Amino acid sequence: MDYQYIIDQLPYSEPFLFVDEVLSVSEEHISGTYIFKKDLFFYEGHFKDNPVTPGVILTECMAQIGLVCFGIYLLKDDISSEKINFALSSTEIDFLLPVFPEEKVKVVSEKIYYRFNKLKCKVKMLNAKDETIAKGTISGMIVNRD
Amino acid sequence: MTSEEIYTKLEPIIKTYLPEDVSANEINRKSDLTRELNINSAHLVDIILDIEDLFNIEFKNEDMEQLRNVNDAILLIQQKTS
Q: Which residues of B touch A118 (CB under 8 A)?
């Protein structure tokens, strides 16, 4: 599957798209990257005069790459992905390092299971030095867009 | 396994995934898992996976369509363990 196809299928757009590229994907794992550009909307308020990427945005980036991109790949043979959507059902993430503007992160996700439309993954975010920024588990449901 | 034995094993699994505002007393054989016990679809999958582990069986997508209440679950488990 063409990696760009996966990104084109994503149901997000600016300013809430947190995927730049998919590096590799298989039935068991996915990895991808994103650069947090300095003009992103949330840096103005988080924090005052001290821009740091919010944990919820890191979680979102991990979910967009580790769960939604992955889900699009896993669904490839099923129904048309234009008719489906993703609902986050649970996250449990530990945050270990801060992410500053202009940092490039890599997200690596390993499938724990994909059963009955529920995808649960072990997801990790790494910085340019390959240090772990955040890690945990994320799960979501693939739902029909009616 | 009798349906009574299955129910005894099933009840604690369901209890684990009940929303906080639903009392465990509301679990009975006729309880609709999603509509009455208010278990969301993600937790319904968790319940199925726990049942699979506990009874050493495997559910298929078609089985999910038949699964509405606790009795349905008991019947499916009986079919698969017999």
A: 41-42, 45
